[in-house]
Design goal:
Strand 10, helix 6 (about 200-205) and strand 11 (about 215) form a beta-alpha-beta unit. This protein has 11 helices and 16 strands. The protein is globular, with a radius of gyration of 21 Å. Helix 1 (about 80-90) packs parallel to helix 2 and helix 7 (about 225-250) packs parallel to helix 11. By secondary structure, the protein is of the alpha/beta class. The protein folds into 2 domains: about 1-40, no CATH class; about 40-360, Aldolase class I (TIM Barrel). The strands form 3 sheets. The chain has a 10-stranded mixed β-sheet with strand order 12-11-10-9-8-7-6-14-15-16. A 3-stranded mixed β-sheet has the order 1-5-13, with no helix packed on it. The chain has a 3-stranded antiparallel β-sheet with strand order 2-3-4, with no helix packed on it.
Length: about 375
């Protein structure tokens, strides 16, 4: 779809800069205030959904910030891989993506093995990944993952965090090295809490694990105390990190280059990527399948009845299909709404009780876009 927008204003080191949407490679301190017509992507294909399947709610860690801590339902799925296959057939899905998660999904590898083999036998085209703390990975699972083109998403932490940053740091490092040795890719995920550790310290800590790709985010569903102080501290650390990040690139030191969200914004600006109406596919083409067999809009909204959108024994329906940057009042007038990937329905709901009410952390994430 095409929309008309004015030149986008960015900010860098307290200087206003303007991104000319007629030519995305031109950034200047002159606001030409031209209205441009750009292509905005509605990128989600509801006929090729992404399913986040909770294969267990059990875990061998007790991380205080985990979104699954409040789960008090069936520990393992009440439905079988055959039930999931029947759901796919009954709803005409032939090409899908699956993320196995929990809990710690590798506590129920039997379910994963059976599901993957069953879908293969029935010619369901599927891309797989597993979100894990990595400590239960063994050579058998790695061989299975290689044979079925899995990606590994590994949850890591800085030295301030008790489970992954202290108790199990060495083991996590060993498992990541095992994955690397088998020539598979590790995409690491870490949570950033400025009250505990600086952004730069966090990055340097987790890169000790010999990773190449890192995604950084804030803790799910938790508004920070003294939000103005919090924002000021984060913005200062973002500027410091931005200087570190850019200087490394200028010096042709690329160890830290693949850090999201930073590399994503640079990619969008420099490589003429599409603009987007949506920040993510939650409730559009992405659905979380709870151990109860119910579908929800997002894994962080499991068991929130308001966001239930189907059942594995019946069907699933998109319930956020009409919600995007244009439909949210606080986003509609924002000058970077088509670049922003910060809108999180789950975070807004868990903090504010309203999935359309944007909070403090989103305004900070928007600051990342402008840096």
């Amino acid at each position: 779809m095409k929309v008309s927008v004015e030149t986008i204003k960015l900010s860098f080191n307290d200087i206003d800069l303007f991104l000319n949407l007629d030519d995305e490679h031109v950034v200047s301190d002159i606001n030409e205030s031209r209205v441009s017509e750009i292509e905005v992507a509605t990128e989600f294909n509801e006929n090729e959904p992404y399913f986040e399947i909770f294969v267990t709610n059990r875990c061998n860690f007790r991380c205080g910030y985990c979104f699954n801590n409040k789960c008090h339902v069936s520990l393992d799925p009440i439905f079988t891989p055959n039930d999931f296959l029947s759901f796919l057939k009954n709803n005409g899905y032939k090409k899908i993506q699956i993320r196995f998660l929990g809990g710690e999904p590798l506590l129920n590898t039997e379910w994963i093995y059976e599901c993957v083999e069953l879908l293969k036998e029935n010619k369901v085209e599927c891309d797989y990944n597993v979100f894990t703390n990595s400590t239960l990975i063994d050579q058998q699972f790695i061989e299975f993952a290689k044979n079925h083109n899995f990606q590994f998403f590994v949850s890591v932490a800085g030295k301030n965090e008790l489970e992954k940053g202290v108790r199990h740091k060495r083991k996590i490092g060993e498992k990541i090295n095992l994955i690397n040795k088998n020539e598979m890719t590790v995409l690491a995920r870490a949570l950033y809490d400025p009250r505990q550790i600086s952004l730069l310290e966090l990055v340097e800590d987790v890169f000790e694990h010999n990773i190449r790709f890192l995604s950084i985010g804030f803790e799910w569903g938790k508004e920070m105390e003294q939000p103005e102080v919090f924002k000021a501290k984060v913005r200062l650390e973002l500027r410091q990190f931005a200087e570190f990040y850019i200087n490394n690139i200028l010096q042709k030191k690329f160890r830290y280059v693949a850090i999201n969200p930073f590399v994503g914004y640079i990619k969008n600006w420099l490589l003429s990527e599409e603009y987007h109406l949506d920040a993510c596919g939650a409730g559009k083409c992405l659905f979380s399948l709870s151990t109860t067999g119910d579908f929800f809009s997002c894994h962080a909204l499991n068991q929130e009845e308001k966001f239930k959108c189907g059942n594995v024994f019946e069907t699933v329906k998109s319930n956020f299909s009409d919600i995007n940057a244009e439909a949210i009042d606080s986003c509609n007038k924002c000058d970077i709404k088509y670049l922003c990937k910060s809108r999180c329905f789950a975070d807004s709901y868990l903090i504010n009780g309203d999935h359309l009410k944007i909070g403090t952390k989103v305004s900070i994430r928007k600051g990342n876009n402008r840096m």
